[in-house]
# Entry
Amino acid sequence: MNLRIFNSLTKTIEEFKPLNPANVTFYGCGPTVYDHVHIGNLRSFVLYDLLKRVLEFNNFQVQFIENLTDVDDKIIKRSAEMGISPSELSEKFSKVFFDDISKLNILPANNYPKATEHVSEMIKFIEVLLGKGLAYQEADGSVYFDVSKFANYGKLSGVDKSQIKSGTRILSDEYSKDDVQDFALWKMVKGSEVGWDSPWGKGRPGWHIECSVMSQQFLGDTIDIHAGGVDLLFPHHENEIAQSEGVSGKSFVRYWVHGEHLLVDGAKMSKSLGNFYTLVDIENKGIDPLALRYLFLTAHYRDKLNFTWESLTAAQNALNNLRETIRNWDQPVVGCAEHEQRFTEALDNDLNTAQALAILWELVKSDYPTSAKAGSLLKMDQVLGLGLAEFVAKKIDVPENVMELVSQREEARKNSDYHKSDQLRKQIKDLGFEVLDTLDGSKVNKIN
Ligand SMILES: [Zn+2]
# Structure
């Protein structure tokens, strides 16, 4: 079976056939680097990584580009509040973003282009749209895309074209589903505000234009895959299609891939509800970021995933159990073909990660020799990215004095003496070991 993936444009699961079989072109909308990204954003970035790994598992060469939005309304507002320049702010949070994704074992993209480094290309792009009559300049200098002039507007999102409010304009980088109206390509700025010189005066690009321009620049007019969170489908991706196809006259994206929302405690994440989490919150609770990756993999990317601290703890326990089990295995050899086959089929079937994980556990619990299981597990982890290589066949010798402290700690936990149990954990740590609580009792790891 070949890789099949749900295409949001046709709303069907299609066999994946790249334009050029030797090189898959893949663009993912990246973060706005003005703050820590939340775990809902991280779910999207893990999806990009998973898809890239599945493509590579299918022997495709992948060219993957993810942009960094380093100028927009939010960045300008936040940097002004903090009394620093937008570039200082975006620099700081780009680093945080790279840190986050590396903790989640996300493999690096081929490039992370920054919007501010491609402004001159954006200006040229807007000039083409103006030349084709698809855009117009307002009296204040701002340039807008005229949605009524683009015949295919709405083809991805299915927005009702009768809703198009021709001649009404939206300047903000973010707007709602009801705002089917002309959007800003170039926004005039006044005085000392951040801006670049352009044929229309000093201004800065709108948010949507950067993806059209950087995608074309790095990957060409027509790309194989464009991915993003489902919240980007309209207006962002609809507007990207209008801009890109408006300029090139060619089809922009062959497969649109959208990841569903992450809910927290059954509700949409928001700062006002106090259910807004970043990787820092997770690490502060002593949870391994890879447990979050594991949790993401338990759900299909097109299903909403409800994050709770209980579900994350369960994912951590499952990961701990897996790590501890495979430590005692023998060195990997050629694996179990049957499990590997079914595992590949699950992922090739629109990235069914939940089923792939179930097959992994079936393998772990099977009666095959551990050396064969180790071989298959390492192959599977090339796609899942759970960092298991570090644990396979890495049995550790725990000195007796450490084991003694561990059993004392277990005793203390049984008696609900958490103060003593914490003290013992610290003593164990001082001796160079960490203790993990799993469903099968306490396990000990050497601290590197
Ligand atoms: Zn984008």
